[in-house]
Write a structure and sequence with these properties.
Elements lengths: L7 E2 L2 E5 L6 E2 L5 E2 L2 E8 L9 E4 L12 E2 L12 E2 L4 E2 L4 E5 L14 E2 L4 E2 L9 H14 L7 E5 L1 H12 L6 E5 L7 H15 L16 H15 L2 H7 L18 H14 L4 H13 L17 E7 L7 H13 L4 E6 L7 H4 L1 H20 L1
Parallel strand pairs: 1-7, 6-10, 6-13, 8-9, 13-14, 14-15, 15-16
Antiparallel strand pairs: 2-5, 3-4, 5-10, 11-12
Helix pairs in contact: 1-2, 3-4, 3-7, 4-6
Amino acid sequence: MKDNSIGIVSPQLFTFAEDQQELVLKSGKKLGPITLAYETYGQLNENKSNAVLIVHALSGNAHAAGLSEGEEKPGWWDDMIGPGKAFDTDKYFIICSNVIGGCQGSTGPASLNPETDKPYGLEFPLITIEDMINAQKKLIDYLGIKKLLTVAGGSMGGMQALQWVASYPEMICSVIPIATALKHSPQQIAFDEVGRQAVMSDPDWLNGNYYGHGQPQKGLSVARMIGHITYMSDESMEKKFSRRLKDDNYTFSFSADFEVEGYLRYRGDSFVKRFDANSYLYITKAMDYFDLSQGKLFPENRNVDMRFLVIAFRSDWLYPAYQAKEIVQQIKMKNIDATYCEVKSTYGHDAFLLEIDEQTHLISHFLNNVYEDVEV
């Protein structure tokens, strides 16, 4: 185990919205009881001023760092969280929870509906990024934290970080949105819709009632393959695969002749083993509903005193840099402190998971300055 690893971590569960205290969703429907799976790393200081909330992307979960018991693969942002890392657990108390609508410990469409004692399926109400944040707020209150040092995340995590600004600006000192946008463009919505149609066109989807019968594996696998293409760049795919064949010659069949074909099939097959198809539908729809453009990022008549570090990647064509600049423009119009960094990378959208050194340099210095000001 690496010296700067946080070691073995254990997931925790927080349940709320019980006894007719359901969470009222943006749709107007109610949901409860709700369980959030979460993990924490580091120690909360005496005045509870060092709390950092990490928010995950579409297929992420609460396991952001360290090793779960019996597993060899560390959390999805392990290179960024731990002693001496960007989110230094010797200094900060890190929190990460699985979103509502998810399928890795938190309440979602695969959870049991208390009214029927069967999985919700499509009886689960449609959710939004705002609903996810409102649920996270309950967790932060439960932990006794009045103000977060920062909220940070990439892709859909960046959307959640921005939603914290719009919903609870008085509760955050700083924000680090990475490779994200104020709203989905028509192209981004289109990719999500193709993925959803791939799932719903699978005969095994059974109108969302496939629990007990098995996942709609083919549809979900294709959806993930489509998504994974958008996460990479043309340059990264050329470097990783080019036109290399798996064997020396063409098979003259529809098997995976090219390495890139085999890679996408592997990614799709792996995804269906760990992710729920209905959760994929619900979460992508929540991302499409998200819209903090046209001045909606900052609530009127609310005190907004925070700093921003906005990070984009030049080769990211799923969330292009112009969308990050739109975030910065809204911030500057409010005369709020913002640092914008456009990182030169060939990894495409996946860069927020792979460009560790550059992000560590940017985030560690930014957070250190915020923390020093808070502690003065």
